[in-house]
Amino acid sequence: MNKLIAEFIGTAVLVLIGCGAAVLGGDAIGQVGIAFAFGLAIVAMAYAIGPISGCHINPAVSLALYIDGRMDLVSMIQHWVAQFAGALVGALILWAIVGSNASLGQNGWGPGYLGEYSMLAALIFEVVFTAIFVVVILGSTGERAAPHFAGLAIGLTLVAIHLVGIQVTGVSVNPARSFGPAILVGGDALAQLWLFIVAPLVGGALGGLLYRFKILKA
Predict the structure, then answer these.
(1) DSSP states of 130-143
(2) CB 104, CB 94: distance < 8 Å
(3) Fewest CB atoms within 10 Å of the CB: 58, 76, 118, 204?
């Protein structure tokens, strides 16, 4: 239960800080600031709850760990429930602060959304960059990884991913992160949510398979 509570809190914090930076401070801090908000939230949670749950706070990461044999199916599903619930609570807290008519940092694509990239571009970005993110996570937490530096490596990778992709999709690489805001905002965010669930899970699975078949294992 401690693991699930940790995953719930960690995912809520990720949404609250990352999406909160985009909504409450985006005009002042810009894309670089938003990117660092997401990355620093991961760093903070990695050291806060990492020893308890591993700080997945991302269903795609839990899937990759399951594929690599580091967790069982029941534990993965329990983590998913905690992560999606935490993301929704984080979005609810942000919604209570900014009001029901405001943006909540939801993901998207197409006309009217940031760089107005196509659905195909969004799909490719989310699959490829989730796979990259998962590879860093699995590698930096592996048996031969440098101790105590995983949180920093993972957080900085998320910063880099946001620097590349904010204009494309707002950056999900995490189905739970997309789920919370989309459920409350509705409209296009909810209609497009499927991509931000499917694509990161596909990317997570690809990253997990690279380790499952020892292609990237030392």
Answers:
(1) HHHHHHHHHHHTST
(2) yes
(3) 118
